[in-house]
Structures are given as structure tokens and as C-alpha cells.
# Entry
Amino acid sequence: MLIFRQMFDPPSCTYTYLLADSGQALLIDPVFEQARREEALLTELGLRLVATLETHVHADHVTGAWLLRRRLGSQIALGDAGGAQGADRLLAHGDRVPFGTRHLQARATPGHTNGCLTYVLDDESMAFTGDALLIRGCGRTDFQQGDALALYRSVHEQIFTLPDACLLYPAHDYNGFTVTSVGEERRFNPRLGGQVSREDFAAAMRNLRLAHPKQMDVAVPANLRCGQPAQEQALPPEPAWGPLTFTFAGMWEIQPQWLEEHLGAVQVLDVREQEECCGPLGHIPGAVQIPLGQLPARAAELDQARPVVAVCRSGSRSAQAVVLLRQAGFDKLANLAGGMLRWQAERHPVEDART
Ligand SMILES: N[C@@H](CCC(=O)N[C@@H](CS)C(=O)NCC(=O)O)C(=O)O
Ligand SMILES: [Fe+2]
# Structure
């Protein structure tokens, strides 16, 4: 069964796509700052990242390709004409990238940049157009070897020739649109659809007068290295106090086994109501008990210098406690995965359990 997800990076309005089959995943256009989120989703869905694909050498954000390869061992693939160094696979027109029993096929769609590729799913039900074709728009052609006539030809010959029902997913959208189709863009794309000629298009593109992307001076050199930062310090910081895992929901978690072995090294914060802490589930030895509703007023009872592990019955109220403590200035924080229910089910030590 095909798994498909569309993720968004708000600062750059970039879409990252996850495609997976039979446990093997591809990511198209991952963003450096979102690598941790993408890794969390892959873990939660039980997928192995086989490769990251770029639609082009981006000018507005740094790719997560290098970081994901370093963390997950994925291959880096992108177009051979883009001039990037350090990829595992340089793709040419017609090349296939397999995942599980499925594959994407690369189509060269230069014009926004000379290395732009559109990736078409094997059954032509969806295609990932990068910045060649945006929803009712298209990528600019005023830098990175941009060429309006080449873009016109690419879109007409390589994208508009796909079936009308083929869904199109772009690399960006600046209006909140998420998906379109070949038939729709052929008719309604104001720059390239309908009766627009190549001359009309080229003249319009010469007069866009857009400011350069804010990140361009950082992004292009980094993306020519497939997203490898110039210095190690540029790597996203990892929490050092314990083996925390990040969830796609955006929460740092710690596992019960580690907590049992390190109870003396952290503050356990139990945010259940008083009566629950001496109910059937009991509480973790040494836990500080502050009900969630009282936490904003009583956060000062906790030591900011020492890690805090929040716990409740199931892990839901304690996740909110982590959010509140972060707002109060705490940074060594984690939620106990599975809460007291899992703690007790796995027979970790409890006090005051009353049946
Ligand atoms: N304001 C954005 C500009 C983004 C931009 O120029 N995007 C390129 C794609 S890399 C584009 O082609 N935009 C087309 C458009 O805005 O119509 C930024 O600073 O990042
Ligand atoms: Fe672009």
C-alpha cells in the first residue's frame, strides 16, 4: 500500500513529500531544520528512508538531504545538471528511483534552474514538479541559470503531457494551496496554461520584479554541498542529558526503562490530581506532585538546572506540562512515554499504589 504525506516548512513555504511502500520510504525536498520532524514520522510509521530526492538546487532553504543521510544512512539523489557535489546518485531524464515495489521516474524540466527534475509516480497518478510548475504559477527564471523559454518547453512537453487526472504537487505554495492536477493547470494556469504563448510567457517572466529569496546567499552554496553545513556548529543541537526521542507531534519523550535507571538524576514531575497519585497506579518514587492546573503558578518549585520528566496517567496532560514549562523558561524537559499506565504495565517501581 502506498503511503503518501505532505509536510510544510512555514518559513520557506516549502513542501516535503514522503512516499513509501513495503517499509521503504523516499523524501522529496526535505528541509534542514525539519529533518528531526521527518525522522520522527519515519520512525512512527516504521519506515526506512532509502533516499532523499531534490527537485532542484534550492535558493530559499537548505536541504535536509545531508543531515538525513548522516542520521539515517539514506542516499542523496538529485539532477545531474544542477552541479551539486556529494550526492550518491546523479539523476538524468528517464532514471528511476525505486521504493518498495514502486518507483518514481525523473523527467528533466529545466527553466527555473537548469537541473530541475519532475518526479512522476510509476502509474502517473501523481507528479512532483518542484518549482517548474506551481499551483496557478511557476518558479521564477531570473537566477540560477533560469530560462523562461526552457521552462515553457519543460512544462508543455513534460508536465502537460501527463494524464489530465494526474495530481501535481509543487515544491512551494505561497497561498496555502496544496495540490492541483494536470488538467486544471493546462486550463487555468495564468502563466503557462490556456492560450498563453511562449513569447507571452517570456515577457511576463522578464517583468516579475521579485526580491531575491532571503536565504539565497546561504542556501545555494549549502545546497551545492547537498545541505552539508559549512561548520559542525550549524548542526541542530541534541539534548545531552538523556536519550530523548522526538515525536512527529513535536514532543521530546523519554522511555520508562531509562527513567527507572536514572531516577536520582532528574526531577520527576507528576501532574495528576492528588487522589490519582495514591490511586491504583500509585506514583513514581520521589515524584514532585503538582496538578497540571497549578503548574503555571508553582513552576518555581522546580529547579531549572536539573532535567524535568513530566508524567501523568497516559502522557497527555504531562505533554501539556512540558509545553507550559518550556514557556516558563525550562529547557531540559521530557515527557514520560506512555505515562503511568505504561510505567506500571512494565512493572517499574511505584509507591502508594492502592487497589
Ligand atoms: N520571499 C521568498 C521568495 C521565494 C522565491 O523567490 N521562490 C522562488 C522559488 S525558489 C520562486 O520561484 N517563486 C515564485 C513566485 O514567488 O512566484 C523568500 O525569501 O524565500
Ligand atoms: Fe526554487
Summary: Residues 12, 58-60, 131, 137, 139-140, 172, 174, 210, 213-214 surround glutathione (ligand 1) (CB under 6 Å). The chain has a mean pLDDT of 97. The CA atoms of residues 13 and 174 lie 6 Å apart.
